[in-house]
């Protein structure tokens, strides 16, 4: 009887191999049908394309996927599956435009199939370290899931009376010495100009998971969270912008024009972010350079040429994310933006 780890490993390998071959076979068959119609319903052309797809999948499986088991898997998948599929879609547009027969714009395939299996593989890679049964060791209810930044601000009474927490002999590191209930130096001026306030310590807690650890009551199940299920949500949200970009490429006015080339090229470049691990610091700059900035430029150009083929929400998202990245990464380090008195 195989162990649970072996069963999980076999399951993941089978799912990843299916994600590799299914998009290639389906799109190549669709391309073969297109060639069959363009060539005057020539069956020979159809079977040549089908044979080429079988030969490609077989050679990739025997020479690359199975013996080498290239790591990272995401990079191998992008090169062996996503790139050929996008190339076939571009070739389909070119074949139809050159022949003057606009038969198939491949509207649903890029979004529903190619990118679905891309998300599928991304989910497998993210969930691979987790258990499939029982509680996950990374459950946010059991382990703190994010750093806690604590900022302490001490406020002293204007009369100079120290707070009991301010240290031995009623003195702090940055405060003047207090004698006979009055403050010396500048503290006395403050006492004459401001009303008396109670000494206190103000604490600000910033945490991505600032919530109680245990819950009770009948509706306690609504507070349950599991990192494994959130992986599915995060993966789909991570790819939605790329999905929308590829959907635009399927619009007939775009698909049968030269704009299909930059759209698919930029969409493929954005998929390279998959190579970076989810919590790697490089992911932010890669998202700016490979997705948000080029997507904003191409979307503005597409709207200017073809009208609103994509919702305005997406270029606005790309613009805001790009501006936020530039501001918080570079501009805040400039001297003119480092004055605390501004904000």
Layout: helices, strands, pairs:
Blueprint: H1 4-38, H2 43-68, H3 73-99, H4 109-127, E1 148-155, E2 178-179, E3 182-183, H5 186-193, E4 200-207, H6 227-249, H7 252-255, H8 260-271, H9 282-306, H10 313-329
Antiparallel strand pairs: 1-4, 2-3
Explain this structure to me?
There is one protein chain. The protein has 343 residues and is mainly α. The protein has 3 domains: 1-134 and 242-250, no CATH class; 152-203, no CATH class; 276-343. It contains 10 helices and 4 strands, in the order ααααβββαβααααα. The chain is globular, with a radius of gyration of 30 Å.
Low-confidence region ranges: 139-151, 165-212
Query: Reading side by side through the largest sheet, how are the strands ordered?
Result: 1-4
Distance between the termini: 64 Å
Our Rg estimate from Cα atoms comes to 30 Å
Mean pLDDT: 78
Question: How many domain modules?
Answer: 3
Shape: globular
The number of strands is: 4
Number of helices: 10
Class based on secondary structure composition and strand pairing: mainly alpha
User: Helicity level, as a percent range?
Assistant: 55-70%
% residues in beta strands: 5-15%
Descriptive terms for the model:
3 domains, mainly alpha, about 350 residues, two-stranded antiparallel sheet, 4 strands
């Amino acid at each position: 009887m195989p162990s649970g780890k072996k069963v999980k490993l076999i399951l993941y390998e089978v799912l990843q191999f299916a994600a590799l071959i299914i998009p290639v076979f389906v799109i190549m068959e669709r391309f073969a049908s297109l060639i069959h119609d363009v060539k005057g319903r020539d069956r020979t052309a159809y079977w040549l394309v089908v044979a080429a797809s079988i030969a490609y999948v077989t050679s990739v499986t025997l020479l690359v996927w199975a013996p080498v088991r290239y790591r990272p898997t995401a990079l191998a998948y992008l090169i062996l599956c996503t790139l050929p599929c996008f190339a076939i879609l571009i070739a389909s547009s070119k074949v139809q435009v050159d022949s003057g027969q606009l038969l198939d714009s491949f509207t649903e395939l890029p979004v529903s199939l190619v990118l679905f299996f891309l998300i599928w593989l991304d989910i497998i890679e993210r969930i691979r370290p987790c258990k499939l049964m029982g509680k996950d060791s990374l459950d946010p209810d059991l382990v703190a899931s994010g750093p806690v930044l604590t900022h302490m601000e001490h406020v002293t009474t204007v009369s100079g009376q120290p707070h009991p927490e301010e240290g031995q002999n009623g003195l702090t590191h940055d405060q003047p010495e207090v004698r006979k209930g009055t403050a010396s130096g500048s503290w006395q001026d403050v006492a004459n100009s401001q009303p008396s306030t109670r000494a206190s310590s103000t604490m600000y807690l910033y945490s991505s998971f600032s919530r109680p650890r245990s819950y009770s009551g009948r509706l306690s199940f609504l507070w349950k969270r599991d990192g494994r299920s959130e992986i599915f949500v995060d993966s789909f949200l991570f790819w939605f912008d790329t999905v929308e970009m590829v959907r635009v490429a399927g619009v007939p006015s775009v698909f049968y024009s030269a704009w299909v080339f930059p759209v698919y090229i930029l969409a493929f470049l954005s998929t390279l972010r998959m190579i970076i691990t989810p919590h790697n610091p490089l992911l932010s700059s890669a998202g700016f350079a490979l997705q948000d900035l080029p997507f904003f430029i191409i979307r503005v150009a597409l709207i200017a040429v073809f009208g609103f083929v994509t919702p305005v929400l997406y270029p606005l998202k790309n613009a805001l994310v790009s501006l936020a990245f530039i501001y918080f990464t570079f501009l805040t380090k400039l001297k003119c933006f480092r004055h605390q008195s501004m904000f």
